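FORM 7B: Structural annotation worksheet

SECTION A. Query
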Amino acid sequence: MYQKSLLTVPPATELLRSVAEQMKLPLTQIVRQVELANLGAGPVDTQALQTQATVALTLVDSYLLGLQLLSEQASLALEPVSVASTLTDTAHELSRFAKQYNVGLEVHVAGRYEPVMAHHVGLRAALLSLGYALVEAQAAQGGKRRLVLASHRGAHGIVAGLYGKYENLQASQWRRALELCGRAGQPFTTVSTGSGAGLFVADAILQAMATRLRVGRYHKQTGLAATLLPSQQLRLV
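SECTION B. Predicted structure
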């Protein structure tokens, strides 16, 4: 089993404030586009609006899922889940959003691993929320914009995370960001210029599965990742 984390979890109200703050931008953009269309200022990019709405709804759904899973944590039923498939599915769902920001996505699975014990829907929601947040963060980076969804074998299990060019990202900054979630408009300026709600929602979901997001490195890139325990019953041969 995992050791109890020293990281704090933002209270539900603090997390809700962060989610509400995060949703202001996409909702404002949607309203503005519709207003311009009504004024005859040009055609509406319906695909962009649909993507923005999908991101906002996904964030709300993930927040509610996190609350549900945390309330059921003591009796939460985990099942064998393929990390490779989950990362691939996440990249597929992120692709349209990433394209709008001109961010390239790559999936790296360094090895043929046994399934991990996780809540399938929860793990996918956590990685997707993390992905939306880090795609936006990559868009603010200079040079080549690339986000890598990767897994590898760590000392205590299978590590799954998302990585990019965040050379100055440190574990102490992430711990501080968790403390400031919902209390500061920009609690994690090293990565996110907004409220960073997707990051905190992802962490809350993962905490229900007895793991947490932590700062990690993969092939000279830095990001946020979680360690998942392999399923001893379904090891791949």
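SECTION C. Observations
The radius of gyration is 18 Å. The domain at 12-228 is CATH 3.30.565.10 (Heat Shock Protein 90).

SECTION D. Sign-off
Analyst initials: ____
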